[in-house]
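sry for the spam today, last one i promise. struct tokens for design, 447 residues
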């Protein structure tokens, strides 16, 4: 008998994800802090640029986590245990293939990335050294996305928390040992991450060890089944396109903000951290709805799908309302902690109301993303993102000349509203697909 959908079940999925997210900014702070002890600016800049380049590339490959959650959850809901087991191997295979391609083409990737984000010759040389070491853990880093998605689909988010805490904790300890203890500098930070990511992969596979006592994970006919592999690739490609478009929004926001001078750029960057905090807090409930909707879709249970969407979205609204209230009451104090520059503090306070509004106008887009990922309605996600990005760029081109940086922030808020409205318009069609029995042929074709 399936477990009842209750608030405690939702929290059991969501809370470990929120806690694991808390380790991410801590790792970034330690990375910066240990190279800062070298007393030179270039190593700090090199680690910053290198980490941003690799993180942006890996973020695009986050499609593997999202696609694996939806497909595994649906197989679980349909009680197709052989497919659940095969999906783990399929996700790791795709992760290794993608990581291998990054290693193969690293020279071209680094060259093009450093042209987009140029720096001094010294910083670029150190950044290349840093990325040249870290890139060799790309197969592990990307495969971990697949393992994480597979665990989330089965509501094993406590295992995800263990994986993240161990991996990031090891990274922090090795950072300190290699850089401060051994004096390895930028290379020490890179080696710490390299070792932590391969250790994380080993731990992730160990957490999934029950699968390896069964035969289907190594059944290559099932793992590499042409139609099922094709469906997974199609789902992942749709999500990747959507992710690239979303990245284009935030990159363009950064570049347009730079046109308003260093003070406005710094203020915008500080306020964007408010958005990151909101996303980290909301991730747990977005991941919960991915898993629960996927299982409902696999079981062809429209009632369970709707209940999962409403219950998790209710928590999402609660979290976002709390974040908006926190930013309204304490936003000025948070800004003062983030920067001591009076002119940047003053500029950030001018635009703080936009960050108070962002959680409220963005919650629909964030939660609907999770619903559509769980349902693997990725073609809808891709198409609605294309429309939303077009609306964002159109709004920015109209509003920036008239209102400057205010126009840029308004355009960003409009993009969130557009994502919520466009995806919301496709929800009834999504819900209808959960009705009635599903043939295996239909399952192979759905995207």
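last one done:
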């Amino acid at each position: 008998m399936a477990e009842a959908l209750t608030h405690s079940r939702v929290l059991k999925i969501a809370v470990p994800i929120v806690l694991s997210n808390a380790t991410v900014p801590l790792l970034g702070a330690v990375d910066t802090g240990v190279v800062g002890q070298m007393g030179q600016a270039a190593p700090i800049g090199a680690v910053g640029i290198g980490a941003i380049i690799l993180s942006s590339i890996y973020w695009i490959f986050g499609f593997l986590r999202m696609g694996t959650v939806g497909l595994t959850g649906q197989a679980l809901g349909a009680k197709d245990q052989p497919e659940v087991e095969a999906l783990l191997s399929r996700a790791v295979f795709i992760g290794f293939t993608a990581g291998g391609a990054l290693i193969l083409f690293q020279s071209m990737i680094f060259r093009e990335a450093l042209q987009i984000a140029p720096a001094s010759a010294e910083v670029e040389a150190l950044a290349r050294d840093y990325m040249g070491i870290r890139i060799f853990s790309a197969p592990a880093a990307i495969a971990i996305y697949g393992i994480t998605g597979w665990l989330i689909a089965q509501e094993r988010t406590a295992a995800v928390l263990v994986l993240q805490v161990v991996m990031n904790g090891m990274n922090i300890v090795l950072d300190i040992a290699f850089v401060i203890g051994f004096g390895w500098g930028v290379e020490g930070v890179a080696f710490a991450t390299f070792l932590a990511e391969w250790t994380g992969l080993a731990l992730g596979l160990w957490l999934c060890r029950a699968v390896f006592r069964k035969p289907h994970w190594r059944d290559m006919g099932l793992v590499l089944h042409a139609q099922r592999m094709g469906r997974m690739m199609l789902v992942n490609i749709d999500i990747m396109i959507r992710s690239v478009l979303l990245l284009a929004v935030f990159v363009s926001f950064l570049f347009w903000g730079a046109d308003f001078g260093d003070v406005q750029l710094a203020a915008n960057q500080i306020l964007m951290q408010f958005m990151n905090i909101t996303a980290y807090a909301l991730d747990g409930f977005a991941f919960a709805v991915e898993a629960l909707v996927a299982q409902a879709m696999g079981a062809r249970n429209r009632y369970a799908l709707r209940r999962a969407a409403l219950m998790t979205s209710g928590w999402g609204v609660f979290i976002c309302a709390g974040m908006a209230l926190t930013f309204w009451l304490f936003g000025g104090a948070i800004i003062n902690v983030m920067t001591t520059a009076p002119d940047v503090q003053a500029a950030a306070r001018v635009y703080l109301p936009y960050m108070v509004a962002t959680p409220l106008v963005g919650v629909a887009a964030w939660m609907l993303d999770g619903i559509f990922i769980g349902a693997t309605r990725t073609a809808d996600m891709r198409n609605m993102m294309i429309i939303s990005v077009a609306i964002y760029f159109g709004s920015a081109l109209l509003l920036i000349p008239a209102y400057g940086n205010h126009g840029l922030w308004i355009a960003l808020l409009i993009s969130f509203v557009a994502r919520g409205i466009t995806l919301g318009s496709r929800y009834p069609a999504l819900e209808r697909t959960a009705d009635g029995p599903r043939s295996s042929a239909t399952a192979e074709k759905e995207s």
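The longest helix spans residues 262-299. ok im logging off now
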